[in-house]
Amino acid sequence: MVVMRSTRRGFMAGTLAGAGALALPRLARAQAERRGGTLVVAADGEPRNLNPALIASNGVFYVASKVIEPLAEMVYGGDGLAPRLATAWEGSADGRSVRLTLREGVTWHDGRPFSSADVAWTAMNAWKPLQNLGRIVFRDLEAVDTPDARTAILRFSRPVPFQLVRNALPALSAVLPRHLYEGTDPNANPANARLVGTGPFRFAEHRPGEFYRLERNPAYWEANRPFLDAIVYRVMPDRGAIAAALEANQIQLAAFSAVPLADLERIGKVPGVKVIPEGYEGITYQLTVEINHRRRELADPRVRRAIAHAIDRDFVVDTIFLGYAKASNGPIPKFDAQFHVADLPGTPFDVRRANALLDEAGFPRGANGTRFALRLLPAPWFEQTRQFGDYLRQALRAVGIDAQVVNNDSAAHTRAVYTTHEFDLAVGSPVYRNDPAISTTILFQGGLPAGVPFSNQYGYDNPAMNAVIDRAAGAVDAAGRTAAYRAFQRIAAEDVPLVNVAEFTFITVARDSVRNVANNPRWATSHWADTWLAE
Amino acid sequence: MRDVLAVLRTPEGAIGSGVLILMVAAALLAPVLAPGDPLAIVGRPLRLPLADPRFPLGTDRLGRDVLTGLLHGARSTLGTGAAVMAAALLLGGAVGTIAGYLGGAADEVLMRIADAVQTVPGFVLALAIVSVAGPTQPAILLALTAGAWTGPARVVRAEVMALRSRPFVDASRLLGRHPLAIAFGGVLPNALGPLLALAPIVVAGAMLSEAALTFLGLGDPNVATWGAMIAEGRAVLRTAPHVIVAPGLAVAVAVLAVSLLGEGMQRAAARRT
Amino acid sequence: MRTVRLIARRLAAAVPTVLLVVLGTWILLEAAPGDAADAYLAQAGGGDAAFVADLRARFGLDLSGPDRFAIFALRLAAGDLGTSVVFSRPVAAVIAERIPITLALMVAAVTFAAVLGTLGGLLAGARPGSLGDRLLSTAALALLAIPSFWLGLLLIRWFAVQLGWLPVGGIRTIGGAGGVLDTARHLILPTLALGTGYVALYLRTLRAGMVDAWRADHVRAARARGLSERAVVWGAVARPAFLPVVVLLGQQAGTLFGGSVVVETVFAVPGMGRLAYEAVAGRDLALLIGVVLAGTVVVIAANLLVDLVMVRLDPRIGAGDA
User: Fold this and answer.
1) DSSP 3-state of A213
2) Boundaries of CATH 3.90.76.10 in chain A?
3) Beta bridge partners of A253
4) CATH architecture assignment, domain C91-321
5) Whether B260 and C138 lie within 8 Å, measured CB to CB
6) What is the model's pLDDT at position A20?
């Protein structure tokens, strides 16, 4: 049952060497799923608001997805979606409605029955007006009809592509209990900290700075699930300690690359520990260089192109990501075959070409070999965004650009890049969420107000780009929509409004005893009802 | 000069100053000994020490030379120690002299401020200041000086208050000199001994705090620092311990050298009296 | 009576200190780039302009700076520390949860340091200038030079990972029986990391006091009376040398509190130090002021306690000085 679809030779060799001959009898015995046990996993942060219907972010989902369920979840193969609270979904031809058929016999953790009224209330009062991503996708949601307790019909004021709604279901459609939220301020509801949902686990306890504890929901709608008695998220801000705790079997699993990449080769050889690079394809992160077009030099596409040519993507993938990433050529990752264009004109590593472009743009090297100086703000989100900042500084020096690194914490970084625009280059890591319209086109669309994090605050505003984004947003037929997004990628490749450097997903490290790990493309942020612990 | 020789004649003073001179020389000569950008990626990541003659102390997680980082990091740590010492002694000396000589309301106000600063845990204060001002060298200097000036201020104030009633001060006063001129020109020089005795303590504290701040990621990212090297290395503590052992020892040796020098100063002073 | 007056005077003196601390912290965080809404958005993964405006209104960030300070100061005067933006809970409740952990760590570190430091100090101070004294004094200097966070990392590597004797972090075994012993086990390594430097400090302070005492008249008199060497060391030399050590306990309370910031980070101990770090990162003004105030109160209380002990130990210290 252990899913390990690795293609990395080094990793496989390490695993085999470590597991050795003991692995065979252990695997053979492990066929029967075992009920019981407490799974202790590492959490490197503590979201202050755990409500996934209000805050669609992976930090929230990591804990909340076990308690509050979405309408559907991503799966490998098939049409990519598995039913959760909805059992069927169907869009109308005119793009103005989506009909959802809901699951029978589901109850909330407090015993009340789940019905279409919960879906209708959450859609109109949480997803559309309050949720960070839902505000974009469900902007034109007008009403939700509930002809019976098992049916909810989303009605839109303008045609909305069914493809988009469908792709948004896993991340954006967590359903809240209406009876606890109606008539309150959803943002201030105590249930945001003590979640009540329909999921396989119930929220039991949060000790700030120490742990979250979830307990098995004995009344879960899927018979004989979940297997685990409890999941404990142990808060461990120090990443070095996470690897140590895994080795000492004080925790059994660390997701989201909580074990530093540099430690994977070693820890993969520790008996009883496995390294799993799958299970994150549906939440692919993109390493980008964000460019402030308000700077005179950076307004010139030749300069932006030169910066893109100065970056050795293979080096970034091999050294910073230690091979756990792919070089990227555009705004849509390779995993999304539906939209990805493979033959975009790229900007391969070419220092000579970069220098020529900069000369041509009219920025010759000065007496000290420098053309101009820039402020470079690496985002504090990941070890790799900081490290890439260090690398970029060096890479830009080779083409005569003097970049001064400015490290900010997350509040100051968000303010500097997305509100006050006090940056020249920034290193970002946006998430690609299964559809370009959810969190990707917002990075390219012009005319957005200042102050919106992870949106185009770069001063880039190209009418042709805006037009193609609009066209896709209104394209009800899948083929037309796909064509529009292909055009979108070509314009992005032409203009280089930002530089896509690499796409990366995360690594899970787990004890061998944890089974059914990484069996869907959003595994870490899915419900873990089928995860179990071998003895 | 005699004082310096006396310090060097103590074993602590001799060892401390010897090590310190070596470290200062390494720091000053770093651009010559290890030219180029100390943060540049120059080799394969995580080479072990002695494995490659080009990298005698190995390389870190990204392939930066550990020895180069050590040499350039000495500039940051030793430089911060020296600068904080100078700033704290100057500021503390000035505040202490004014408070001690003028007394009254000025003394009251200045000492209440010193009370407040001393009551706030120093490292928490530094953490807050650097987070607010942004991680740059001047911000670190400011943050560490903000917590370090109160000790010198109190020592000088006590000395000045004791000296205030001496005959030579009365004489100056009768000559009609400005009170501050008397305080700084006449009284302060006599209080310098106890002030200088505090210097090694201030330097050692500042160096340890600089290492801790840069360890927490609050250092200037364009500069090589020992704290940042340790922070970077802790992810690979098991795989490549050399990445954190080298800079950690460097911090300890530098602080120890300064403390030994301070010990030597004390012994020399004790012998004289 | 003397004691009561001492306490009253100390508390009166603490009022301007506390006011200055509150004002200073407020101004400092107000000057920071980015506010609580920025910190929240960064964590939440973005939102549109109206969402951002909502958030600022919800956090009360749409008022002017002086207005917010006035509201905060009035509430503080009434004994209300306000609500933490990061935890969406009253600041007082958050602090009440964390402060016992930091106090436990501080007390453990001080106890460890005082016991070991006193032993070493007595050994060194019994024969100043001897080889043993030189070795102990220099070793103490070396301990004082080791960065606590670095020591912590090495301790984790050896005792938690390599040998597996002790937990790598946290303060209790999750899913275990818990209890005081369990927490104590978790605090062993943090205590060593935090306390080692203070061992050296106490050793050196006690030794220095004893060196001074050897020269004092009453010691010479005691020797002249022909008392045994041991009686002289214990009775006449060591006892007065303890006074500066006790003073030091109070003086170091602030440093100890600050030192626990770094050590708590390394060992994932959910105490005040880490809370301060989280408050700054989340631009949580009310919480940071609460943490700084709590630290201030701890320092004032520690000094008061030391003063009271001193009054007992040495009758000459009394109501006169301040």
Assistant:
1) strand
2) 72-185
3) A41, A510
4) Orthogonal Bundle (1.10)
5) yes
6) 37
| Structure tokens belonging to residue B113 | 């401020």
Task: Give A-chain residues touching B37 at CB under 8 angstroms.
Answer: 394, 397
- Check CB contact of A370 with chain B, cutoff 8 Å: no
Contact between B234 and A240 using a beta-carbon 8 Å cutoff = yes
**Amino acid at site A89:** W
Domain with B236 in it: 2-272
Whether C45 sits inside 8 A of A56 (CB atoms) is yes
Domain boundaries of chain C, sorted by first residue: 91-321
C50 Cα to chain A: minimum distance (Å): 9
Q: Is there a contact between B122 and C254 if contact means CB atoms under 8 Å apart?
A: yes
B200 part of contact set with chain C, CB < 8 Å: no
**CATH number, residue B41:** 1.10.3720.10
Calpha distance B78→B75 (Å, rounded): 6
Q: Give the CA distances from residue A396 to residues A304, A312, A390, in Å, rounded to whole numbers and listed in that order.
A: 12, 11, 10
**What does the alpha-carbon distance between residue C301 and residue C253 come to, in Å, rounded to a whole number?**
9
Q: Of the candidates B115, B215, B253, which has its C-beta nearest C17's C-beta?
A: B115
Q: Which residues contact C162 (CB under 8 A, 6 or more apart)?
A: none
Neighbours of chain C (3+ CB pairs under 8 A): A, B
Quote the mean pLDDT of chain B: 87
The CATH class for the domain spanning A8-46+199-279+506-533 reads: alpha beta
- Verify whether the Cβ–Cβ distance C145 to B215 is below 8 Å: no
Find chain C residues with C-beta within 8 A of B132's C-beta.
28-29, 31-33, 280
For the stretch B204-233, pLDDT in tens is 999 999 999 999 888 888 889 999 999 888
Q: Beta strands A38-43 and A498-504: pairing type? A: unpaired
Phi and psi angles of residue A336, each rounded to the nearest 5 degrees, phi first = -90, 80
Which B residues, 211 through 270, put their C-beta within 8 Å of a C-beta on chain A? 217, 221-222, 234-240
Q: Which CATH number fits domain A72-185: 3.30.1330.90, 3.20.20.140, 3.90.76.10, 3.90.1720.10?
A: 3.90.76.10
Contacts of C300 in chain B (CB under 8 A): 119
Pairing of strands A38-43, A230-235: parallel
Q: Report the sign of the C-alpha dihedral through residues A354, A356, A358, A364, in that order.
A: positive
SS3 A40: strand
Chain A, nearest residue to C166 by Cα? A248
Longest dimension (CA), chain B: 74
> What was the pLDDT predicted at A142?
95
The model's pLDDT over C14-30, given as tens digits with 9 standing for 90+, comes to 888 888 888 887 787 77
Chain B contact for A265 (CB, 8 A cutoff): yes
pTM for the structure as a whole:
0.82
Is the CB of C175 less than 8 angstroms away from the CB of A230?
yes
Within an 8 Å CB–CB cutoff, is residue C36 touching chain A? Answer: yes
Rg (CA), chain A: 24
CATH class of A284-504: alpha beta
Tokens of B251: 């911090």
Number of domains in chain B: 1
Is the CB of C39 less than 8 angstroms away from the CB of A410?
Answer: yes
Contacts of B221 in chain A (CB under 8 A): 378, 386, 389-390, 405-407
CB pairs A-C closer than 8 Å: 160
Within chain A, all domains assigned CATH 3.10.105.10 are found at: 284-504
A27 to chain B, minimum CA–CA distance in Å? 29
Across chain A, how many H-helices and E-strands are there? 17, 22
- Return mean pLDDT, chain C: 80
Give which of A302, A293, A311, A496 is closest to A388, Cα–Cα: A311
Both tokens of C23, joined, read 């004002």
Size of interface B-C (CB pairs under 8 A): 134
Q: Is the pLDDT assigned to residue A357 strictly greater than 60?
A: yes
Which is it for the CA torsion B15, B20, B21, B25, positive or negative? positive
